[in-house]
Specification:
The complex is a heterodimer of chains A (306) and B (184). Chain A has 306 residues and is of the alpha/beta class. Helices cover 51% and strands 9% of the residues of chain A. Chain A has two domains: 121 residues, Up-down Bundle (Glutathione S-transferase Yfyf (Class Pi), Chain A, domain 2); 157 residues, 3-Layer(aba) Sandwich (Rossmann fold). Classes of the chains: A alpha/beta (306), B mainly alpha (184).
């Protein structure tokens, strides 16, 4: 069977602020025998909350430009960011169903000698791993299960919402992200506000960081009420930034101190596949860099000091 | 009464439907499905902590109160989490209605300075969060990656293409004009 290949859409936050996620994704997909191809000359998705709120046609045109790069190579796209997924998947969907938008976008793209054709699909890592690779294959690679590690989840919003359009999971009772994370062997910890937005999206973090952090703080308090957790796992780098570096910012704005280790799902899987944290740079999360701290190795069940 | 000023009666017998038509065209096609149940606001994490009220904004839009909708600061408190959209019994798709109203607000000059800065960054660097400083390149190297990723950070021609798109759609003007206004 030919090796499965995806164009790897990086976006902004993963390659520019949380490169450990990019590194972990490359490790995990390689272990699973899936090719990740560079998407040369891709740009900002562009940010759905920001650009989508400014001018829908410009947003769709820039997203469509990114899609044309993958169309030219003939492979689907995968991305590890809820925001990038929202822009690329939504634009691809809307362009297929809205003739007026498609005409406007292709007229704009003609300026740069490109045309959106609608020939490729877009997958979030979560979706690619769950439905394209399969949990069985993933379970077989778990050589270092995170047994006894208490794991809270933050699925975030845009990979599964709006549910009637995306048709990925039931956003009020989702299970796909949990099923994927549980392959790591960590123990799922439910908490009341698991499904609430991290607060960063929709251009809110850009406009009013304190308001965005109020969402985050509510989530943390809800998690502590449920008995706390050793790690919080998310499928999105913007959520990760908000939950990780957000702890440093919350300390500044609200004088409340939290210490959660936050991981992207591919970082969790890289650990479960037996890779050492320094192979992908877990300690470079901005929380640790700014606090000059380190992950709680003991709680993670990792002995190696790096 | 909560206001010190007397409010004019809203003549709903003759609503100005031009605003509604704009919203429907700009990405909120189902706005008129709304029967004001309030499920959206009841589900809204932004509404739980601010004066952002999805139902109120949609009602104002249906009444044709365009200026009140597009000038209100709380319009920008929505994180676009789509919880309201997933729960709305009338398929109004309130998140898309809010985004459509934001599009109209921006077209009429209501754009917050930090948002304008982010838009400019995309046009200048190809990314809302650019690679920017050497420290980020060092961070990439530390995790075993090439210093500059294969996106617009490495390919300046990609940025040129974005600028051409922005020129064609008039987006560059939308962002620039605001800057000039600010400097006055």
């Amino acid at each position: 069977m030919a090796k499965q290949s995806f164009y790897h859409f990086l976006g902004c936050i993963i390659p520019h602020r949380y490169p450990s996620i990019e590194s972990a994704a490359k490790i995990v997909f390689k272990d699973l025998g899936v090719n990740l191809l560079d998407m040369e000359g891709s740009t900002c998705c562009p940010a759905p909350g920001v650009f989508g709120s400014f001018d829908r046609v410009t947003w769709a045109t820039i997203a469509a430009r990114n899609l044309t790069i993958a169309e030219a190579g003939g492979h689907p796209i995968t991305t590890g960011c809820n925001g990038c997924f929202a822009s690329l998947w939504d634009a691809n969907h809307e362009l297929k169903h809205d003739d007026e938008l498609r005409d406007a976008v292709n007229e704009n793209l003609a300026e740069i000698d490109r045309e959106w054709k609608g020939t490729i699909e877009v997958w979030h890592y979560v979706d690619a791993l769950y439905s394209q690779v399969g949990l069985e294959k993933i379970r077989k690679l778990v050589t270092r299960p995170l047994t006894n590690v208490r794991m809270a989840l933050h699925p975030g919003c845009h990979w599964m919402r709006p549910k009637q359009i995306k048709k990925k999971d039931d956003s009020d009772r989702p299970h796909i992200f949990r099923d994927l994370c549980e392959t790591s062997g960590a123990e799922y910890v439910p908490y009341k506000d698991e499904l609430i937005c991290c607060g960063a999206g929709g251009a809110v973090r850009t406009a009013d960081v304190k308001l965005a952090l109020e969402f985050t703080k509510q989530k943390f308090d809800s998690l502590l009420d449920a008995g706390g957790a050793d790690i919080i796992v998310t499928p999105c780098p913007f959520c990760e930034l908000q939950l990780d570096m957000g702890q440093v910012e919350i300390q500044k704005y609200f004088e409340a101190e939290y210490h959660f280790d936050v991981m992207h799902v591919v970082e969790l899987l890289a650990l479960a596949f037996g890779h050492k944290p320094d192979e992908f740079g877990l300690t470079t999360h901005l929380q640790y860099m700014q606090r000059k701290s380190a992950p709680n190795w003991e709680r993670l069940g990792i002995e190696a000091k790096i | 009464m909560t206001s010190t000023e007397e409010k004019p009666v809203i003549e709903i017998d003759t609503p100005d439907d031009s605003f509604i038509r704009m919203i429907k065209k700009t990405g909120g096609p189902n706005v008129q499905n709304c029967y004001q149940c309030g499920t959206c606001s009841g589900s809204c994490p932004a509404g739980a902590r601010t004066n952002y009220l999805v139902r109120g904004i949609i009602r104002k839009a249906l009444l044709g109160l365009k200026e009140q909708c597009i000038s209100s600061p709380e319009l920008w408190y929505c994180t676009t989490c789509y919880t309201c959209t997933d729960r709305c019994p009338q398929d109004v798709m309130p998140t898309d209605v809010i985004k459509a109203i934001r599009n109209i607000a921006v077209a009429e000059g209501y754009m917050l300075a930090p948002h304008q800065k982010t838009a400019l960054k995309v046009l200048e660097a190809g990314h809302a969060v650019p690679l920017e400083k050497e420290m980020w390149e060092n961070l990439r190297e530390k995790v075993g990656l090439e210093r500059v990723p294969p996106n617009a950070s490495r390919y300046p021609e990609a940025i040129e293409e974005l600028q051409k798109i922005a020129k064609k759609t008039g987006f560059d003007k939308l962002v620039e004009e605001k800057e000039e206004k600010k400097e006055e």
